[in-house]
Each structure stands twice: as structure tokens, then as C-alpha cells.
Amino acid sequence: MEIKISENLRRFRKEKNLTQESLANMLSITPQSISKWERGEGYPDITMLPSLANCLEVSVDALLGNDLILAEERIQNYLAEYKRLTAEESTWHTAFAAARKAYEEFSYDYRIMMLYVNALKIYHPADSEDEIRTICKTVLQNCDDPALCADASYFLCGFRNAEDRMAFLKKYIEYGQDWKWFKVYSRDSEEGKIMMQHEILDGWWHLNMYIYTYGDLFNEEPERKVTHEEKIALIKKCEKILAAVMDEGDYGEYTWYIGQYNEFLAGEYAALERAEETLDAFEKAVDGWIAYDTLPEEYTYQNILMTHRPYTKESIGHGFVNVRHYRETVDADPNFDFIRTTERFCKIYEKLQVGE
Predict the structure, then answer these.
(1) CA gyration radius for the chain?
(2) DSSP string of 301-355, one letter each residue
């Protein structure tokens, strides 16, 4: 980080409400010298730095900008430490303490603010809603980093709980629509666009989860309340809902769902021993997980509903489910046994072994 003495000198002088002339008098030098230093056309002699810092009531490190460099190093250390602590279950109990310590020291830094919000949401969700709202609104109103603003709006949207959303769906089904349930944001502001994007995605995600629950899609117990055919129909509903929101080829982090939908479909078709449909879904699942596994480090959506919404591979927890995980799932599922020796299955399966 390059810090100029000229910028710091001018900033600290104005914060102390000193004119160039008054500061010059305190140092027994000419105002022209102060003006020259602030324009970056020269620098004070090193022997004068302690006196100059004393007049401005700051440290020499602050005047030189070293304090900001050291602060940035500490911030980066806090971010790395929190990531490390949350990656291992055995250290989860210390993650919140680390986040709080970081926030107490750097409550003005937007990155640390969102780190602390993340910790509050994970470890103390029941009694932290007001604090999360306050911090997120501050970030949205003042931060110019689109990724941090996107995170802030995500957390704000998350306060609409499942009970509220079920009530909305019930009203929508019974009465057609109730616009009071929608909040309209101005598209003229960056904050408004980000909030709308997250409202759209948040609504899609919750509807997706309702269908998963309604279809009992995660239930692996022998006694099924929902038939294989019903599950297949519901999964296809989920696919259509995602396709309605996203543009073809512009799925970004949502390639995760392309893999998952087709993984579910392949499993259901396999249970019914419908070979061609199983293989079709199996290939799409493999391609989906490979696409997710090979996401670019950074991506910006082109979709008109989410234009310029960014993400980074690190921010989405890349690797939570991946190609290796899916291969292990297929290997352990006896429903695939009836097609394992077919030429097409083997050809598709080879994709799962790439990089091994």
C-alpha cells in the first residue's frame, strides 16, 4: 500500500483545524514549505518529523502512513484466521471470539464488519438481528465494494423467515397475488439494484427449498411418502424455476444446482431402471459438477436481473460438493448397477476420474 506523506500531512492538519501558516509558525518555518510538502513537491527533513508529528498530535508512523500498512496487515490476518477457524469443526468454538476481537479493533473496516455479521448469523442468530441489520445497512449506505454490498443485502433479505414465506405462498395461491408482500427498490441506486437482485434470488432459493421439502427429496429412508415419478416431476419444476431466473450459460455459482438437480434425477430414474433417462441425467449431473468444480476465480453475471452481481470462488465455499463427492455417491448407489457395464455409462464415468 503506497501512502504519501503529503496526503497525510494535509489530512491531519485539516483535522486539527490548522492553517498552513499556523502550522508553519509552530515549527518556525515558512508557510511555503508546508504548501510544498502538501503538494508532494518535497518532503520534510527526517529530523523534523518528530516535531511535525507532535504539532499534529499523531505518531510519526501515522504521518508516514505506516499505521495504515500495519492495520491492513492485521486485517488480512484476521480474515485469514476466521477462514481457518470456520474450515474445521474442531475450531468453530473459537471462530466467534476471533470475529468479535477483529470487530472491536477494526469496526470501521467494511470487510471486518461483514466478517462479524457472518459470525453473528452463524453463532448467535437468535439475539443478533438488530446488530446485523445496523451493520448491514451501514455497509450498503457507505461501502462501494459491490461484493460486500451483495453480502450485506443477502443478510438483510435473510430475515424474512420461512413462516412468512409460507404465508405469502398461501396468499398467492388463494388470492392470486398480494403486492403488499413485495418491497420495490429503486433501480436508480446501486443499493436498490443489489437489494432487488437478492430479493429475486432469495425468493427463488426459498421456493426451491419448499419443493425439495414437499417432494421429500432428501429422504433416503426405505418407506417413501412420495413416489419416484412424483419426485422426478418436482425436480423438473425446480429446473424450470431456475431457468426462468437465470440465462442459459450464465449460471455462475448456480451451476451447483444444475449438478444437484440432475444428480437427483439420475437417482430417481435409476431406481426405476429407466436406462436412457438415467444416463441422460447422469451425464448432465457430471457436466454440472465439473462446471461447478472449475468455476473461475471471479465471475460477474450478465443476466439482466443480476447484471454486474459479482462473486468469487472463495466467497461461495467452493468445494463443499464437487466431482469427487458425486463419484463417491455413484459408486455407493446400487441402483446404478444395472447400467454400470454399459459403454455409455463407462464413457461418462471417465469424466469423474479426470485429475485423479
Answers:
(1) 28
(2) ---TTSTT-EEETGGGTTTSS-HHHHHHHHHH-GGGGGGTTSHHHHHHHHHHTTT
- How far apart CA 43 and CA 116 sit, in angstroms, is 40
Rounded to 10 degrees, the C-alpha dihedral 312/309/147/179 comes to -130
Long-range contacts of 264-269 (CB under 8 A, 24+ apart): 264/217, 264/231, 264/235, 265/232, 265/235, 265/236, 267/333, 267/335, 268/228, 268/231, 268/232, 268/235, 269/228, 269/232
For 182-209, how does the pLDDT look when each residue is reduced to its tens digit (9 = 90+)?
Answer: 555 666 777 677 777 777 887 788 788 7
Q: How far apart are CA 82 and CA 195, in angstroms?
A: 27
| Number of Cβ within a 10 Å radius of residue 283 | 18
Residues ≥6 apart with Cβ < 8 Å to 273 = 338
Nearest to 56 by CA among 21, 108, 8, 3: 8
Residue the block writes with cell 465471475: 299
The residue with cell 468444480 is 293
**Model pLDDT for residues 219-273, shown as the tens digit of each residue:** 655 455 788 999 999 999 999 999 988 988 888 888 889 999 999 999 999 999 9
Distance from C-alpha of 278 to C-alpha of 147, rounded to nearest angstrom:
39
CA distance 139 to 137: 5
- B/e letters for 157-172, b = 16+ CB within 10 Å, e = fewer, are bbebeeeebeebeeee
